[in-house]
């Protein structure tokens, strides 16, 4: 027979689940019907109490993050499906069908500039030292203040977000090569190609002069030369973009979550789940969420 204490705890948990579910359902209905005219198409970004999100009605909305009420909107921007990027008071948003990158001033609420490329903008941008990087028909480096092109790379382009570290921008091209460019000149520093790198949808991670690349296996490369520092063999391949917090976290198609020491490439721990791990990790203090 189950104890009274057990039944009480079970009932409390059940009630909590019901309350949370009702709150979530209420919030979803409110945002969908009261704040936007269509389904959200991009991952939102929070800035100063406002949530910016793209919608299927080709509008970018700025919503009150607490109430969901509409603060501002930017119409006729096309479908924005790539995650938005925020840096130095500016929201960067890429449009699929309009093939345009927009820069929106979050203070004046005005569009600062727009840059028209020759293809869809489907990956999020990267920002560093006054330059914004994004992939479309080519790989572009754009002055974040003026919207003027600094340089472009025409031989290949990317789907996954680029990474920036130590004056270098990195991205994985459709050819599955990892490219490294000088952020100021656009000069190619190196490219890296391996038969084990077969996935073009996982972006690199770069920090402290090292670039990490996940595909069939996980690589750590010298960020200046592209030479291999270590390689961690992954049974089932790397499915989620690695997250770096001194330790590298990622998941594979066998439902395993790995924690790898960033310096040595040695396994710190491994945890098995029941399903494939496609999402990237979120790390808060001593806890990793997948």
In brief, what are we looking at here?
Among the domains are: 1-33; 36-122, Lipocalin (Beta Barrel). Helix content is 11%, strand content 40%. The protein contains one helix and 26 strands.
Spell out the key features of this protein.
26 strands; mainly beta; four-stranded antiparallel beta sheet; about 290 residues; Lipocalin
Low-pLDDT parts are 1-34
Widest sheet, order of strands: 1-2-3-4
Quickly count the helices.
1
The helix-and-strand class reads: mainly beta
CATH fold assignment of the domain at 36-122: Lipocalin
What is the CATH domain class of the domain at 36-122? Mainly Beta
Beta-strand percentage range: 35-45%
- What string, H for helix and E for strand, traces the elements in order? HEEEEEEEEEEEEEEEEEEEEEEEEEE
Total number of strands: 26
CATH architecture of the domain at 36-122: Beta Barrel
Distance between the termini: 36 Å
Round the Cα radius of gyration to an integer and report it: 21 Å
What does this structure look like?
The chain is mainly β and 290 residues long. The chain has one helix spanning 4-35, and strands at residues 45-47, 50-54, 60-64, 70-74, 85-87, 90-94, 100-105, 111-116, 126-128, 131-135, 139-143, 149-153, 163-165, 168-172, 178-182, 188-192, 205-207, 210-214, 218-222, 228-232, 243-244, 247-251, 256-261, 267-272, 282-284, 287-289. β15 (178-182) and β16 form a beta hairpin. Keywords: Membrane, Transmembrane, Transmembrane helix. This is Pyrrolo-quinoline quinone repeat domain-containing protein.
């Amino acid at each position: 027979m189950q104890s009274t204490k057990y039944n009480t705890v079970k009932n409390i948990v059940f009630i909590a689940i019901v309350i949370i579910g009702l709150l979530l359902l209420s919030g979803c209905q409110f945002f969908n019907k009261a704040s936007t005219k269509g389904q959200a198409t991009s991952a939102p970004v929070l800035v100063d109490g406002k949530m910016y999100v793209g919608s299927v009605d080709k509008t970018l909305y700025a919503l009150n993050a607490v109430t969901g009420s509409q603060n501002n909107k930017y119409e006729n921007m096309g479908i924005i499906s790539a995650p938005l990027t925020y840096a130095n008071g500016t929201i960067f948003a890429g449009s699929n069908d309009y093939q345009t990158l927009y820069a929106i001033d979050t203070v004046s609420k005005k569009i600062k500039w727009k840059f028209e490329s020759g293809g869809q903008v489907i990956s999020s941008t990267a920002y560093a030292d006054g330059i914004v990087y994004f992939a479309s028909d080519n790989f572009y480096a754009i002055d974040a203040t003026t919207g003027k092109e600094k340089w472009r790379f025409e031989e290949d382009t990317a789907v996954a977000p680029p990474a920036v570290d130590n004056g270098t921008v990195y991205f994985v091209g459709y050819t599955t090569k990892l490219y490294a460019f000088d952020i100021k000149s656009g000069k190619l520093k190196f490219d890296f190609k391996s038969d084990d790198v077969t996935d073009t949808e996982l972006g690199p991670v770069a920090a402290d002069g090292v670039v990490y690349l996940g595909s069939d296996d996980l690589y750590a490369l010298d960020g200046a030369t592209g030479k291999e520092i270590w390689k961690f063999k992954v049974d089932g391949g790397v499915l989620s973009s690695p997250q770096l917090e001194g330790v590298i976290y990622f998941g594979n198609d066998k439902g395993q979550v790995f924690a790898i020491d960033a310096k040595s490439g040695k396994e710190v721990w491994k945890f098995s789940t029941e399903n494939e791990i496609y999402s990237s990790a979120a790390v808060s203090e001593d806890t990793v969420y997948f």
